[in-house]
Each structure stands twice: as C-alpha cells, then as structure tokens.
Amino acid sequence: MTSITATTGSGTGRTVRVVINKEAALPATYWYLWTGLLINRLGGFAVLFLSLYLTAQRGASPALAGLIAGAYGIGGVGGTLLGGVLTDRWGRRPTLLAAHFGAAALLVALALTTSLPVIAGLTLLLGVVHAAPQPAFVAAIIDVVPPELRSRAFNLQFWAFNLGLAGASLLAGLLASWSYSGMFLLDAGSTLVTALLLLWKVRETRRPARAPMAKGLSVPLTDRIFLVFVGLTLLQALLYSQTNTIIPLAIAADGLDPRVYGLVTALSGTMIAVGQLLVPRLIDGRRKDRVLAAALAVMAAGFALVTWADGAVLYLVAAAVWTVGSMLAAPPNAEINSELAPAELRGRYQAVFFLTFPAASFLAPALGGAGLQAFGAGHWLIVAGVGLAGAVLHLVAGPARERRVIGTGGGGRHPSP
Q: How far apart are CA 242 and CA 307, in angstroms?
C-alpha cells in the first residue's frame, strides 16, 4: 500500500491523502474469466494426442497425421485474427460463448467421426474456435481490471494457463491409454462447463465505442510503436520456442536419455506453478522496459549455458535460468499490450499480438534446426545473442512506449498517421 500527500488550495493548508491499495481485490468477473481459462486449459488434452490418435486409431501415415495436425495450427492463425475482429464488433461475451459452444460441438463430432477427410476439416475448424477466444479473454480482463492491478491479474492468468497445460499433459497420458473417443468427449465436456460458466456469470464488458471503429486490422498493423513491441515479443517467443523444438534435438544429439527432456519440461512447469505467484513482488513499481530487458537477458544466459551442456545437470540448470526469464516477462508483456491498445480496438490489438506465438512455433524449428545442423553447440550462442539484442532494443524502444502511455492515460489511442 502506498500513499501520496498533496496540499491543495491557495493558503488553505488543506491536505488530501490519496491511498492506492495494490493489494485490492480483483473484480469477481476477472475470477470467473480466470476459472474458465483454467478449466479450458485443464480440459485441452485431446489436441496433445491428436497425431497419435490419427496413426493408432485411424490408420493415418505419420506424414498425413502431421498434415492434419498442421491444419489445427493454420486454423489457429485464422481464428486469432477472426477472434480479434469479433471481440470488437460482437463483444467479448458473444465471442467467448460462440467459440466455446462451437468447440464443444466439434470435439463431439471428432469423437464420433472415422473419415480422415472429415477429421481434417473438423481439426481445421477446431483450430479456429480454440484460438478465437484468446483476444476476447484478454480484452475482457483489461476491461474489468483497473490498471494498477493488471500486473497481478496477468501474472495469475499466466500461472493458470501453465498450471492447466501441465494438468492437461498429465491427463492426456492417462486418458489416451483408456479411450481416444472418451478423451475427445471429456474435452468437449470441460469446454461446455467453461461455456456455461461464462454464460451464467460473465456479462458483456465492452463499453460503447466513442467514435466509428476502423474496419479490419488496419489500425494495429499501422501502429509503429505497437508493431515494434510485437516484433520484440516475437524475438522472445522465438527464444522460448527453442525449449520444445530444438532443445529435445540437442539432448538427443548429446546421447542422453529422452527422460532428460521430460525432467527439463517438468522442472520448468514446476517452477512456474510454484514461483509465478511471487513475480509481482519482484517487478511491481519497476519500469516495464527494464523488466523485459532483464527477462530477455536472463533467458539469453540460460540458452548460452546449453552451449556447454553435455549432461542432465547442466541442462536442468539452463532450464531453471531461462524459465526465470520467461516468468519475469509474462506480466509486463501483457500490461504493455493492454496499455497500447485503444479501448474500442482491444480485440484486434490482442489478435495481432497473439500471432507472434504461432509465428514463433513455425520459425523456431525451421531456423533452429538449420542453426543446430550448421553450427552445432554454437547455435546456442546465436540464440543468446538474439536474446541480448532483444534486451537492448527493449531499452531503446521503452521510452517511446512510456510517452505514449502517459500521453493517453494508459488507455491507448488511435496512433497518429
């Protein structure tokens, strides 16, 4: 809790004390959104085993299974953009409800379908409706949470996302050995529970636009300050995507047991589950560009350690370091995104921001695989260099972002042409 004391009135000696309580409770609507996100992630186990389901149960070749699974990713890109536009035009609540009810229906259809072409089409549509709620979730959180509490809100959101993902991974392994069709049906059930919770407890949070809205994505795609921030977020996503694409290859190249990679991912997930709630105490009150610069520098140090890793211990140390960096980066990334977006275009700004993650999931294995083949262990020094460059660029770009936020009261605005 902090207080500001000021004297007002000419010669009156009146003193006004303003108290800002950083431990104030988050709004109830936020917690319903948070609970819906957690349930949704916990239930999101079917897609994790999609490729195995296609090969083991539907007779697809590995190549065909990869193409069908890739359709999910393509749908995700389209769904992210569609969700952003609908979030601003329809509203947060209608977008969330349409996406969740649609996803539940598609998961039931996947459980009952045996035709591979139909499964491919359903998988593409599932990618759309799974990605569409992301901009709406975040836009609704920004709508209902005051700026001084957003760091804590986004930190808890990141924690719930990772906790749900860890739980889904555990459940997927258990359910896949029981029944793939049952796995899809249980996923549909958890999605339906989320939809009903949102229908029951969450009202529309979007405020009426003060001026006619721009069409399409023209405003965020011409907002230079925002696009610089998105580009730096892409660099961070490229770094973190190494952990599930190229790190497994490096571990295998060192002749280590695949269980080492399992330990690495388990350590990272455990650190986030245990430590993420402590992050706000470390970063509150600090300039966000400096926090992000420090986060990227820490991530760079973690990947640099992989250069010398040849056993499980050093891989685990490296994982601990890069995980700390990613934990520090999550809240300020979300806060900056919320501050730069005009209120009436929050969904579209979120959509463009979220595109960095599918882009990184494509670029990281493509560039990382070539880098590892060409440079061997030296690849990790290049990755570390990218992280350090991102840290410097955050410090360079930060002042312009801060001036923009201060000039608009933290609510975003249409950028000047």
A: 13
Strand 14-20 to strand 2-8: parallel, antiparallel, or no bridges (unpaired)?
A: antiparallel
pLDDT over 90, % of the chain: 50
163/166 Cα distance (integer angstroms): 5
CATH of domain 220-407: 1.20.1250.20
What angle in degrees, to the nearest 10, is found between the helix axes of 180-201 and 150-176? 150
State the average pLDDT for the chain: 85
DSSP readout, 225-237? HHHHHHHHHHHHH
Phi, psi of 309 (to 5 degrees): -75, 130
Coil vs helix vs strand at 297 = helix
Distance from C-alpha of 74 to C-alpha of 14, rounded to nearest angstrom: 62
Same fold, 28-201 and 220-407: yes
For the chain, the structural domain boundaries read 28-201, 220-407
Q: Which segment of 207-211, 258-262, 380-384 scores lowest on mean pLDDT?
A: 207-211
Closest CA to 128 of 73, 88, 180: 73
Residue 17, H or E segment: strand 14-20
Both tokens of residue 35? Answer: 């609970």
SS3 of 298-314: the string is HHHHHHHHHCCCCCHHH
Contact 302, 321 (CB under 8 A): yes
Residue 290: other Cβ atoms inside 10 A: 15
* Sequence-distant (≥ 6) Cβ neighbours of residue 339 within 8 angstroms: 147, 401, 405, 410, 411, 412
Burial status of residue 388 (CB atoms within 10 A of its CB: 0-12, 13-18, 19 or more): middle
> Is the distance from CB of 105 to CB of 189 less than 8 angstroms?
no
Q: Which fold has domain 28-201?
A: Growth Hormone; Chain: A; (1.20.1250)
Do 300 and 329 contact (CB within 8 A), yes or no? no
Per-residue model confidence as pLDDT tens digits over 187-206:
899 999 999 999 999 999 98
What is the per-residue pLDDT for 408?
66
Please, are residues 180 and 60 in contact by the beta-carbon 8 Å criterion? no
Closest CA to 136 of 77, 183, 89: 89
Angle between helices 312-340 and 346-354 (to 10 degrees): 160
Q: Using CA atoms, how far apart are residues 62 and 373, in angstroms rounded to an integer? A: 23
How many whole angstroms separate alpha carbon 349 and alpha carbon 322?
27
Q: What is the pLDDT of residues 314-355, one digit of tens each?
A: 999 999 999 999 999 999 999 998 899 988 899 999 999 988
Give pTM, 2 decimals: 0.78
